[in-house]
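Researcher: We're teaching a course module on how sequence relates to structure. For the next exercise, students receive a sequence and then see the predicted structure as tokens, so they can try to spot secondary structure elements on their own. Here is the exercise chain.
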Amino acid sequence: MKDYYQILGLQKGASREEVKKAFRKMASQYHPDKKTGDEEKYKEVTEAYAVLGDEKKKAEYDTYGHSFQGAGGGGGQGFGGFDFSGFQQGAGGGFEFDLNDIFQNFGFGGGGQQSRRGRDVSIDINLNFQESIFGVTRKLLITKNNLCKECDGTGAKKGTEMSSCSTCNGQGKVRENRNSIMGSFTTVRECSTCRGTGKIPKDRCGHCAGAGIARTEEEISIKVPAGIQNGEVIRMTGRGEAMANGQPGDLYIKVHVEQHATIKRDGSTLTSKLPIKLTDALLGATYSVETLDGPINIKIPAGITHGELLRIKNKGVPIGGGSSRGDFMVKVSIETPKKLSRKAQKLVEELRSEGI
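Model: And here is the predicted structure for the students to work with:
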């Protein structure tokens, strides 16, 4: 007799969350429509889940082990919030359930046509500091699965007719009967021959061999919004890999921003240091400050102190995509001379005698 815990790679008495996690991982791995698929293993996994995923059946199985007989089990609220009372009861005590419903109940796509979805694509782009502040549009060539241009994703040779799939008799789903210690049950899954459409072309597209998708280069125009920060991710819905008879995945762009040599960012505020002479700090002066908008003259008031901040309004980071911007803050750094000439030293001593 089969050990359902062993099939799911679990220890006896595993928790509901452990059963759920193991089932999701293994069912996804062994699904017959995947490259890593294994139909027999997939059936074993679903059979094990049908017992361990139901609280009542799991309790009986934990008590009676391999002598457990669960064919007559009724409905009830089952594992993970899935309602097992929706199974269709057969005349011989068996039942039928759609594997696509289970997958959708767990929050990830099943084999049904409506839930078919292409893979997401992730890329990284580098921006200089100024591009991150003001935004930029980038065009990139990305190699990924796209709908075949020769057949528009149908998988059929141009001009050919579509015929009913003989594997599923045009239903798009395949029912498989299996006997177990629970009794008999039927699983329903998407037909792998027609990919759930119920139709297949009489002549397949020669460019994509009937798959409906081909790996090609596509130029993607990426609009980077103003004010984006290092590590942020831009999501472009539907620009990931294509899926024949399904929805495309999404494109995720992770942004890496290069640091500026003199300007730092703090939210919507930009800051930089401004070294000034001691005499200019005492008497006042006008300095040119380098901003992202170009050089701007700023007045240094007489008597300014070391570390004091001066504000240049509306020269910081754009706020909310509008014309409003943060401020540009200038931090004053008073430079003290390390050596003085005799004349300069005499003048400083006179200043000290004045109490300055």
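Model: If you want an answer key for the exercise: The chain is about 20% helix and 30% strand. The helical segments are 4-7, 16-30, 39-52, 55-64, 99-105, 129-134, 278-283, 342-353.
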